[in-house]
Amino acid sequence: MSLIEQLNWRYATKKMNGNSIPDEKLNAILEAIQLSPSSSGIQPYKVFVISDRDLLKKIHPIASEQSQILDCSHLLVFASWDKYERDAIAETFQYTLKERNLPSDTMDAYLDRLWGAYSPLPQDWHATHSAKQAYIALGIAMVAAAEQKVDATPMEGFDNAALDALLNLPEQGLKSAALLPLGFRDAENDWLAPMKKVRRPKEELFVTL
Ligand SMILES: Cc1cc2nc3c(=O)[nH]c(=O)nc-3n(C[C@H](O)[C@H](O)[C@H](O)COP(=O)(O)O)c2cc1C
Fold first, then answer.
1. 157 CA closest ligand 1 atom index
2. Which terminus of the chain has a smaller tally of CB atoms within 10 A, N or C?
3. How does residue 150 score in pLDDT terms, banded at 50, 70 and 90?
């Protein structure tokens, strides 16, 4: 299938059938997330990969009782940094420099400039900026899932504060951004499965200058 065919195949699955995803498909999706680009390459988020059924049962009421939480194979929780810290950014840069065998001071001037821009900004800005980076990974995860013929439902319909408390995210300097249950569609019982995919017409979406 071409990329466009894969994007037409995928949809925000409302009913999954409870089947497990083979490891190689899950790993391909996780690798795509790992390869996602982010501002300054910081990747200011973690992705929790949850298949523990007891934990999923606890998340179900927090996520508006959406059935995919129980019927998915794995639930991905995208959790982004609640703020940037100079040391955390420096650590990322040092890791990159070590992997590239470059001198450890190569990015010092860039770090000074970046921190000069980030540090005066309010924590809300930091949290929003990190969450935006996590959403890029969310988008890439959806495309990777479609490529693997795995169904996925992006979700914002959950109680962020309750999920953060359940997963002890504040202690880790993290906030939940979005959920992505992965699994397989139950096409016969999913009302959305036979529906036409509808998007804004190109003339309305694109502004050609
Ligand atoms: C960030 C985001 C949050 C969403 N939250 C939910 C959700 O909580 N539950 C749900 O069933 N669908 C959710 N959706 C699915 C959208 O409604 C769906 O992607 C959109 O209508 C386009 O349809 P399609 O993905 O089926 O092509 C969400 C989608 C995105 C991108």
1. 8
2. C
3. very high
Query: Are 47 and 78 in contact, with CB atoms under 8 Å apart?
Result: yes
8 Å CB contact between 7 and 182:
no
Expressed in angstroms and rounded, the spacing between residue 146 Cα and the centre of ligand 1 is 15
Q: What is the 3-state secondary structure (H, E, C) of the chain?
A: CCHHHHHHHCCECCCECCCCCCHHHHHHHHHHHHCCCCHHHCCCEEEEEECCHHHHHHHHHHCCCCCHHHHCCEEEEEEEECCCCHHHHHHHHHHHHHHCCCCCCCCHHHHHHHHHHHCCCCHHHHHHHHHHHHHHHHHHHHHHHHHCCCEECCECCCCHHHHHHHCCCHHHCEEEEEEEEEECECHHHCCCCCCCCCCCCHHHHCCCC
- CATH number of the domain located at residue range(s) 3-205 in this protein: 3.40.109.10
pLDDT of the residue at 71: 98
- Reported as half-sphere exposure (CB side, CA atoms, 13 A), residue 111 has a value of 19
CA of 39 to the centre of ligand 1 (A): 24
Assign 123 a pLDDT band (cuts: 50, 70, 90): very high
